[in-house]
Amino acid sequence: MLYIIAYLLFVAGPLLALLPGRRIPSVLAWSSMTTGCVLMGTEGVIAIGGPAAQPLIQLALPIIGPFDFVQTPLGGLLILITASVFAVALPFVARDASAFPQGRRALFLSIVMLTLAAMIGFFSAATIVSFIFCWELAAIAIWGLITFETRQSKPVAAGLLTLALSELGSLAGLVSLLLLASAASTPQLVGIAAAIPHLSPTLILVAGLLAFFGFGMKAGIIPLNVWLPAAHGTAPRSTSPILSGATLNLGLYAFLRIDAPIALHAPYLGLIILSSGALTALIGIIYALVEKDMKRLLAQSSVENMGIATAGIGAGLTFAAYGHPLLGGASMVAGLYHMINHSTFKTLLFLGAGGIDATTGTHNLDELGGLMKRLPALGGFFLVGTFAIAALPPFNGFVSEWLLLESLLRVVEIPDIPVRITFALSGALLALTSGLALTCFIMLSGSALMGLPRSERAAQAHKVPRTVIIPMGMLAVLSLLLGLAATLIIPVLGRLAAPLVGANPTASLVPAFFHPRSSIPLAVQHALNPIGVNVGAAFLPLRSLVVMHLDQTSAPVVYAMSTMLTFVVLILMLGSVWLLARGLRHKRITRSTLWDAGLTRLRPEMTYTATTFAAPVRVVFQGLFHPHIEEDEERQGAFVLTRSHRQVITNISDRLVLKPMISAAFTVANRLARMHKGRVNTYAAYILLAMVLALIMVGGTGR
């Protein structure tokens, strides 16, 4: 019932935007759509705690076949995330939509709601027809969002690239589903998953690879990830939080529905997912470091974070395939946790980028600076987002990345040498990614918020819309809570991971530890006491320590963490520094003029910009970037007035995959075109040859 009411509210929102005026129609449309998101999020929560599958819609369409939808706990999690992202982004969307004329305003909001409706349908799809239909509907709606605001060449080109690669991925995914459905003799996704153990190993491996790289396009997995920075860099500022915080999860969900049951019986598929995710994460953060456009930087960072979540999923499936479902569950929890975290802090950061664009008119980092002083609320919340995405404790990014890196170390339980090597290399790539991510977001926050304003627009920034500030504040608090309440969230994700890997890690490893009122067994307590299991038990609302693996026979702790205690320690440290500073303020302080070396005033152009900060990265990874220099000069007669050099970096996926594919397609097309430009005698020869071959074949059949 909630689904029906929510969808009616989604339809009512754009219709209310057709009313005359600007403010009242926008408020009414926002209220209707946000209420629908709240109802849909409520339905997601109900689904998470509900049974394994609950039918929603069952239709038998002529020719097409069954068109069914079902409610599942995993789908409920994705619906909750999606509805929450849309809910916090809609105030900014409605504000920007109010600047359009009535018709375009309603059309814009209709495309936004179509995106949401298609995604919810995708997370509820039960057959390959409904699965592909909702995927395609979401792809078309995303293309509409990217190209809606302008008809300039760059947004149109980015939208067409997104749509083309999406269709290429859809084709690969559809072939995968048709192969599996034909072999399993059922179009139902549950039936296909149940039949996989009885299918040909070669067939399921091929189908799994097609599904991974086909649907992986939407998650930004290499090699088809070049669309993401182009699309997000040109999309309307109010839709970027939706595109990054919500729509990228479509690809991850497709992995979990299609590839998870396959990887349990094709172990090397899990290794491919793990290594592809780790490589995607590293490449994403390297390219983010050399971006000076804030939106493109955040888009490249989305590639990185999707890679991290994919690596967690791949590691979990590999552990389960090699007979270690508990360790697989721990890795899968890390992957799901990071998916939630990415949606939280990336929505926060894109809202901040949109707010900066709204007040300064630019998102070029080299033209910003000094915004923390002029926009303290936005700057503070934006800084929390950078802490979270850089995986600094006690924020949420730290929890999921720590769980993933620690779970990869447990590959020692698997004796297979190639598996150990793959895990070791993937872990090294992810560790390097974490270090580069910290550098990247120091650069982002420093160049955008700190220092002196490097343009007149940044110097005059003074006001940010409340439709940005309030959602940013909510997401900043949520980023902290998702880090502190790890012992409350991990059991929920463990239950969702259980059907994917065959075991619930929190119920099987240390079951009592994640329940505050339960008593921990004495042997486990003795093992955990030295690392602080009982610290804060009297006043903390949850267990402070997160333990994901423990050998209860000899009682060694394999890995544990505590973001709650880290937070308490940080508060005590910061409080001590504040008290010390207050105490020193009352003492006599001698002030004197420092030697300025002749520099009486620091000018904005003397400060570090994003471009100069990233210079060492450009040098170290020059072989990866493969840059080329574009030279522009202005002449007057024989004299050169100005000459400028610009370094252009091409994405490695574009250079090694996309451009060769396009070149090969043009070559084939040109050769085929020659067949249509020949002489009449040549065409007559073709016809004669075809007739002779047909007669020979008929004659052979007659005998």
From TrEMBL:
| A single BP term in Gene Ontology | ATP synthesis coupled electron transport
Q: Which GO terms describe its cellular component?
A: plasma membrane
- Entry keyword annotation includes Transmembrane: yes
**Which keywords label this protein?**
Cell membrane, Membrane, Oxidoreductase, Transmembrane, Transmembrane helix
Q: Where do the TM regions start and end?
A: 74-94, 106-123, 129-148, 160-183, 203-228, 240-256, 268-290, 377-399, 419-446, 467-490, 558-581, 680-700
The GO terms describing molecular function are: NADH dehydrogenase (ubiquinone) activity; oxidoreductase activity
Domain NADH:quinone oxidoreductase/Mrp antiporter transmembrane per the UniProt entry, residue ranges: 127-411
Q: How does the UniProt record describe the way this protein sits in the membrane?
A: Multi-pass membrane protein
Which cellular compartments is it found in? Cell membrane; Membrane
InterPro entries for the chain: ComplexI-like_HydComp (IPR052175), NADH_UbQ_OxRdtase (IPR003918), ND/Mrp_TM (IPR001750)
Q: What is this protein called?
A: NADH:quinone oxidoreductase/Mrp antiporter transmembrane domain-containing protein
Q: Which organism is it from?
A: Acidithiobacillus ferrivorans
